[in-house]
């Protein structure tokens, strides 16, 4: 049977490599690109269309309903972006506090480490009541010489949960 009789097309002899030479295989459905390169190209096209329409809105005065205006031809614009350095941001507190203090927002710090042994803990670090971060070995209070007073904290919690109730000595009539 020929491919003309069945309506099917003959498949190419071997697999097709991506046209971007990324090393993966492409397909005819994705314009001979691999799935990642195809998604990237679609994303670039959408961004270019969005940039063109926003540029056109700026040039035309911001109105999208201007039927009497002529269309503007938009070419590619090369924009060079400088890297931004992280800086500490100082913002004043609201005027309701009344003091002249300011809040300092720190930039993102490096990886989290155990306070005792400086081992990287990442997401598996254990926070202690003393306010420090520890690894699995030093997470218990007796392993890192914790200054937190667990006894007083426990007594305070019990006192809050069980208030003292005294009955009146004489019944009111």
From TrEMBL:
<comment type="function">
    <text>May be involved in environmental stress response.</text>
</comment>
<dbReference type="Pfam" id="PF01428">
    <property type="entry name" value="zf-AN1"/>
</dbReference>
<keyword id="KW-0863">Zinc-finger</keyword>
<dbReference type="InterPro" id="IPR002653">
    <property type="entry name" value="Znf_A20"/>
</dbReference>
<feature type="domain" description="A20-type">
    <location>
        <begin position="12"/>
        <end position="46"/>
    </location>
</feature>
<dbReference type="GO" id="GO:0003677">
    <property type="term" value="F:DNA binding"/>
</dbReference>
<protein>
    <recommendedName>
        <fullName>Zinc finger A20 and AN1 domain-containing stress-associated protein 8</fullName>
    </recommendedName>
</protein>
<keyword id="KW-0862">Zinc</keyword>
<dbReference type="InterPro" id="IPR035896">
    <property type="entry name" value="AN1-like_Znf"/>
</dbReference>
<keyword id="KW-0479">Metal-binding</keyword>
<dbReference type="InterPro" id="IPR000058">
    <property type="entry name" value="Znf_AN1"/>
</dbReference>
<dbReference type="InterPro" id="IPR050652">
    <property type="entry name" value="AN1_A20_ZnFinger"/>
</dbReference>
<feature type="domain" description="AN1-type">
    <location>
        <begin position="108"/>
        <end position="154"/>
    </location>
</feature>
<dbReference type="GO" id="GO:0008270">
    <property type="term" value="F:zinc ion binding"/>
</dbReference>
<dbReference type="Pfam" id="PF01754">
    <property type="entry name" value="zf-A20"/>
</dbReference>
